[in-house]
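Support reply, case 0932

Customer input (verbatim):
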Amino acid sequence: MPAGSGAVEQLQRVLLPRRGEPHDVRTLYLLEAETNTRRVTWPDRTSFSVGAGQEVSFQTYFNAFPASYWRRWSQLSTVVLRVEVTGEARVDVYRSKIDGSRIAVDGKLVADGAAEFELSLDPFEDGGWLWFDVTAETDATITRAGWFAPCAPAPQTMPDGTTVGPFEPRVTVGIPTFNRPADAVAALEALASDPQVDAVIDTVIMPDQGTRHPADEPGYAAVTEHFGDRFFEFRQGNLGGSGGYSRIMFEALGGADGTGEAGAKESPYILYMDDDIAIEPDSVLRALQVARYAKSPMLVGGQMLNLQERSHLHSMGEVIDRSIFMWTSAPHVRYDHDFSEFPLSHQGRPDDGPKDRNSRDLHRRIDVDYNGWWMCLIPRVVAERIGQPLPLFIKWDDAEYGLRAAKAGYPTATWPGVAIWHMAWSDKDDAIDWQAYFHLRNRLIVATMDHDGGPEGIVRSMKKATLKHLLCLEYSTVAIQNEAMKDFLAGPDHLFDILETSLPRINRLRRDYPDAVVLPTAAELPKPSGAPGVPVKDIGGRLAPVKKAVWLAKGLLHSVRPHDPAHHEVPQANFAPIEARWFSLSRVDGATVTTADGRGVVYRRRDREKAKELLAESNRLQRRVLERFDDLRAEYRAAHEELTSRDSWGKVFHA
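Our regenerated output:
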């Protein structure tokens, strides 16, 4: 920066969309005034031109500054906005309150020069963003703009009162992959595409756990040549997400003895990323700066945007509902928020209720318990002190790590403007397919390690889920959830032993159930015979609870009757996923249900005796969970240190 500038270190670049992006994606970066007669243009992603008389606002997801987060978690009390202008333009700075209302902060006319605004973070205790708008007086070009710290980062306070750092902006990036070679190569290319991002990457670690290898993919040779001796690939058996991410941490810390080549750079930060994502590369730089300027070492989570609806934000953050020990959206979070329809400026109407769509809650600071490992930055000092991920294969490993870190004094923040694009959960059947085993088993394991209350709420929620699955003819789901309880009740000593074998075992078990067999199309089956009187739509309104009670009674009555074998050969209905609900499926003996991704169908067949058998086993196992939970809590907690040690994981990796 020029002498006398107050902009010492860049925290967040102002970015323009990639060329050719559609309008809805552009709204994540800039908003052009409806009165404009000419569009903003940009030759690259960090400079842009505005025609005389035209206006553009950066009150957007990627370019507004999440001031309340910086106030809560960082060492800073002020932040500097610097805007460099060729031509003549007015720059106006605004902030928002917790309810999204706008307040003018500062502004000035800039002619062939730079404007700097040092802005206080004091008004942002509970929420609020900072942003700026540009009004061009002549044709003008903003050659560079960004948010800066007015000072270098200071040492950070550890939970025991000692200090560490400040740390350099260097990171080891880890991307585990399983049979997604094209996605894995694309993720590497995205990291290499931005020189500023590339410059902070010490090392890239890619555990390859599949049978289709990135090394066989076009583009792999070129991108790995780009990274050179910074790139390390480790082939291993399919140990799931926890095995892939644990390998990254294991190698980044130098292996069991600390001398491994992949950890030689001793990066102060380890960044976890999924392979099947699209990343905004600047998110890497932003996450690093958040971590470096934090008051104390903390985990920095990236938010998830929807890869298939790219202007949609999946969630602002997640917590654990302690009453049932299940993850859920944090308070005030709006699921699947569409920025193209509801930009940050959209406050709605004064009489809007909690269910009305607007952007007010996006101005709140959202506090979380953990962040998913689609993108999560972990300080090295945290990894060294609290250990490796648990050997859970998939599901709950990221939640447990965040909970464990918080107990040790290292919080997590899910940071707005730090983000990746990932496939939405709505296109997955993970609550009923093979993943249902890991959902339940690992939920119970993590509960023993983190939950200090009784298991009654957890078991009640399990009973409710079992009944719903049986009414929906999802027998394979109940069967593998019963297996999950058995493996949980077996205790912690076998977790490493079954790390690689659980999935094949569960898949073999599921083959015996028709609801787990995907057929290419319902057209291969006879035409549905019809299911008169079966509701296929959840009718809302004041009478909905009464109607649902009637539907439940009818569904239960139907479920205790013998099934009609004819409906196991000819389905009664072909249900789309939105129609495949308990109140429709509980009234039929056979129906097809389209998979969430729309690529096939399953033919669900009611079997009273099988349902009765599964329910009896489930009830027996749930009673055992209740009876043994306290004893198992002691066993799992005693085993935690061994399960998360580098020595234990080293034996798995080098077996």
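We compared this against your earlier run and they match. Two observations from our side: The radius of gyration is 27 Å. The chain has three domains: 9-152, 157-276+287-302+370-419, 435-609. Please reopen the case if you see a mismatch on your end.
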